[in-house]
Amino acid sequence: MRAFYLIVLCALSFGINAKDTLVKDIPLDDFIKQGDYLEMTLSPSGKYIAARIRQDDRVMAIFIDRKAKKVIGALNPSLGSEVHRVRWVSDEKVVFEYAERRSSLDWPVPTGEIYVANFDGRFPKLLAGYNAGEQTTGSHIKRKEYTPASFQMINSLPSDPNRILVIEHPWSQKGDSWWDLRRRLPVISTLDVRNGSKRKSETLPFRDPSLLTTRDGEIRFATWVEDNGVQKAAYRKSADDDWIILMDENSEFLVDASALWLDNAAKKAYLWGRYGEKGFMTIYELEFSTQKLTPLFTDLDADIADWEYDPATGEIIVGVTFFEKAKYHYTDANSEAQKAYKKLTRAFDGSNISIVSRTEDNSHMLIRVNSDINPGEYYYFNRLTNKADFLWANWSWIDPRDMLPIKTEVLAARDGVAIPVRITLPTKHEGAPLVVLIHGGPHGVSDDWTFDPEVQLLANRGFAVLQVNFRGSGNFGSGFMQAGYRQWGGKIIDDIYDATQWTLANYNLGADRICAYGASFGGYASLMLAAKYPDLLKCAVGYVGIYDLNLMFSSGDIPMRWGGEAYLQRVLGTDEKELSNFSPINHVEKIKANVMLVHGEEDIRAPVEHAELMRKALKKAGKDPEWLLYDRSGHGVRGLNDRRELYTKLLDFLSENTRAVQ
Question: Does pLDDT of 12 surpass 90?
Answer without folding.
Answer: no
